[in-house]
Amino acid sequence: MEISILGLALLFAITAALYASVGFGGGSTYIALLALASLDYRALPAIALLCNIIVVTGGTIRFQSRGLIDWSRIWPILLLSVPAAWLGGRMVLERDSFMLLLGLSLAAAGILLITEPFIRRAGGETQKGQWTGHKLFAPAIGTGIGFLSGMVGIGGGIFLAPILLLTRWSDSRRIAATASVFILVNSAAGLAGQIMKSGWSLGADALIAYWPLFFAVLLGGQIGSLLASKALPEIWIRRLTALLILYVALRILFV
User: Fold this and answer.
1) Cα(201)–Cα(205) distance, rounded to whole angstroms?
2) What does the pLDDT look like over 212-234, one tens digit per residue?
3) Where do the H-state alpha helices sit in the chain?
4) In this structure, are residues 85 and 132 in contact, taking their beta carbons and an 8 Å threshold?
5) Measured in Å, how far apart are the chain's first and last C-alpha atoms?
6) What distance in Å separates the CA atoms of residue 247 and residue 23, rounded to the nearest whole number?
7) Left, alpha or beta for 154 (phi > 0: left; psi -120 to 50: alpha)?
8) Cα atoms in the 13 Å half-sphere on the side-chain side of 117
9) With contact defined as beta carbons under 8 Å apart, do 89 and 197 qualify?
10) Cβ atoms within 10 A of the Cβ of 172, count?
């Protein structure tokens, strides 16, 4: 499917607005749109990760200003996830292997988007500090998701948030704040790995070639922050993006 750069920019702006309104970056949808546009698979992760960084930076600042980021609880999740994301970004994959991994990741992300409301109800609301799980849980989860994020260009929040909700790690607002920080730092680490893998000059050239997309998500992210989910209920945002992600996953895996 051929999509012009301006068409992609418009879709990216809409995606950024929707995700920013609920505190996420949108990496899974960016990379799904890029895959639909038939771009060089090697450029997909870097573009999606940089878009993540642009969008989620504002969300992280907002969460911090509201006192929802508990760094003493977040650092065990980030401890190994950051180097794992960098290592994942450095991984060299053949096109078929990358597209298979991307298709499976998008399918999982779409399913999680659809099922998260049920996961939220199953997990219930946990007050800050009540979670008493194993101390290795957070580093293990962060490492696995970080590595995958760096390889395929998905920030990881879409996987982390449902897991934390289901295990009653904290209340939903602080989990959203944790996911925002996770996306930001792991996207940065994964992007560094991706650029080092392709070479600084080649990586920079690829990012410069798609500069309208970065401007679009910056604008869309600001709009989403202002809307704060008032224009469209969060559940419909999740359902619509889940349908797109699942559609792309099926195209990648079976077409």
Assistant:
1) 6
2) 999 999 999 888 877 654 555 66
3) 5-20, 27-36, 44-65, 71-90, 95-123, 137-152, 157-166, 172-198, 200-209, 211-227, 234-254
4) no
5) 12
6) 23
7) beta
8) 9
9) yes
10) 15
Q: Tally Cβ neighbours within 10 Å of residue 216.
A: 25
Using only the alpha carbons of the chain, give its radius of gyration.
17
Q: How many alpha carbons lie under 13 Å from residue 151 in its C-beta half-sphere?
A: 23
148-166, pLDDT tens digit by residue?
Answer: 999 998 888 888 888 888 7
Rounded CA gap, 221 and 57, in Å? Answer: 10
Question: Does the pTM exceed 0.90?
Answer: no
Residue 104: CB atoms within 10 A of its CB come to 15
One-letter identity of residue 234: E
Residue 226 has a CB neighbour count (10 Å cut-off) of: 12
Question: Do 172 and 65 touch, CB atoms closer than 8 A?
Answer: no
Give the chain's mean pLDDT.
Answer: 82
What span, in angstroms and rounded, lies between the C-alpha atoms of 65 and 214? 25
What single letter denotes the amino acid at residue 110?
G
